[in-house]
Design goal:
alpha/beta, TIM Barrel, seven-stranded mixed sheet
Length: 443
């Protein structure tokens, strides 16, 4: 099996194992076929995921993707590894991170935005980070990680009080939470790390043969959907931990969740300014009213759709340059409305399917449907943007001194998409991108 090798303990070992696997695949003619799909929102072990950046890139390539993007919560630590892994595999790569921001000083104050757990707090993605700016991003995120860990510790304290009442072994923050994370290597610790530690306590207490279903029903007074009850009664379920974690997120997390404060969730304007400062693209992550969740950990509820027109006006006023969304998640009418508003307000559309569970497929055939096929070009434009902005910040897609700053966004994206698609993913050189940009496609 490739996964244990690609999830080895060190970056060097993971990448070398990948080189060996790719070399063997190519020698035997068993390498993956390309479908033309893309995904710019893949989480890794540096936030929460069963996949190292190397393993995530391999999974993406073997699902047929021609480009993959890393998007960890509050961490950029896996970026260099993801870039190198995609280079070995011969697929395109992009770099970003996700964070929660405070919208209290905006017109969105007091609203449920795209965050199920908090009012006035929104998720945003910072896409297209030029490679030379990765160290600066790490420095920017370090105090946010520290603030988050103070809250994480406090949440574990609250959780342990509840566990003691229920007769369940308590969680040791360092042993059970920190040690399952990549915090020592610059990774972030999230609520999912705590929930994974809790899931393991429950598995240890009740086993994998259905007794945990009784815990939800009899102790928590929470009736599991029949499908989930069946999955948790199956000891051979290879996704057992992630299925249990998803149920805990919706049923148990509220009992110990502590709202993040201003040191962890910085003002949205500050985050947008930082993204533009480093030549990246600040993007709002559209959630939309939820009826079903691809990860199984989000209940049906309403979010931005009732005030979407106002939201887009606010996004433009705040300086956002893009909106990212998931084609498999929402209905076509929902996303057609988003697309129309992006066109009206000059916002780039970026596709990204949130991958953070072993149960999720890396394949996203929806991206090839006519309603979303333009998102493939947007990914190649994003790739070109990273390479060009890494060479010269004026070549960032949204830099005011960009040679095509006066051109419509659609025209800029067309040019950048051609540059990105023309690059050799095995040798994605910034100087080559510049030459293509200046000489080949801008005549």
């Amino acid at each position: 099996m490739s996964m244990p090798l690609l999830n080895s303990d060190t970056v060097d070992a993971r990448l070398q194992n990948l080189r060996d696997i790719v070399q063997a695949e190519r020698a035997s003619g068993t390498g993956p076929l390309r479908t033309g799909e893309v995904n710019n929102h893949i989480h890794t072990i540096y936030s929460f995921s069963p996949y190292s950046p190397t393993a995530a890139a391999w999974q993406a390539a073997h699902a047929g993707l021609q480009a993959a993007g890393i998007m960890d919560h509050d961490s950029i630590a896996g970026a260099e590894e993801m870039l190198e892994a995609c280079k070995i595999l011969g697929i395109g790569s992009t770099v970003g991170f996700e964070l929660r921001v405070d919208c209290l000083a905006t017109g969105l104050a007091g609203r449920k935005i795209n965050n199920p757990d908090s009012l006035s707090i929104a998720y945003m993605a910072i896409h297209g980070i030029p490679r030379p700016r990765i160290p600066e991003v790490a420095r920017f995120l370090e105090p946010l990680q520290k603030a988050r860990n103070q809250r994480n510790r406090a949440m574990v304290t609250c959780l342990n009080e509840r566990l003691s009442e229920l007769g369940i072994p308590v969680i040791d923050f360092e042993r059970d939470v920190v040690n399952r994370s990549m915090a020592a290597q610059g990774g972030a610790i999230t609520e999912r790390h705590i929930l994974a530690a809790l899931a393991e306590k429950l598995i240890s207490q009740y086993g994998r043969e259905g007794r945990v279903v009784g815990f939800f029903k009899d102790t928590l007074k929470f009736d599991l959907p029949s499908k989930m009850a069946g999955l948790l009664a199956d000891p051979a379920n290879p996704h057992y931990l992630y299925d249990l974690l998803g149920i805990l997120k919706s049923s148990f997390l509220p009992s110990f969740f502590i709202q993040p404060g201003p040191q962890e969730c910085i003002p949205v304007r500050q985050a947008v300014r930082f993204a533009l400062h480093i030549g990246a693209i600040p993007a709002y992550a559209y959630l939309g009213d939820v009826t079903a969740s691809p990860t199984g950990d989000k209940k049906a509820e309403k979010f931005e759709d009732d005030y979407l027109d106002f939201l887009f006006e606010e996004l433009v006023a705040l300086g956002f340059r893009a909106v990212t969304y998931m084609p498999p998640r929402n209905t076509l009418p929902q996303l057609q409305r988003v697309q129309g508003l992006c066109a009206r307000h000059g916002l780039m559309e970026i596709s990204g399917v949130d991958i953070n569970s072993s149960r999720q497929s890396f394949s996203c055939p929806e991206i090839l449907q006519p309603a979303f096929s333009h998102l493939v070009g947007a990914t190649w434009a994003l790739i070109a943007h990273e390479k060009l902005a890494g060479f010269d910040e004026r070549f960032s897609l949204f830099h005011p001194a960009n040679p095509y700053a006066a051109a419509p966004l659609a025209e800029r994206l067309r040019i950048y998409a051609k540059v990105g698609a023309a690059l050799d993913p095995s040798r994605p050189d910034e100087a080559v991108a510049r030459q293509l940009f200046l000489d080949k496609f801008t005549a």
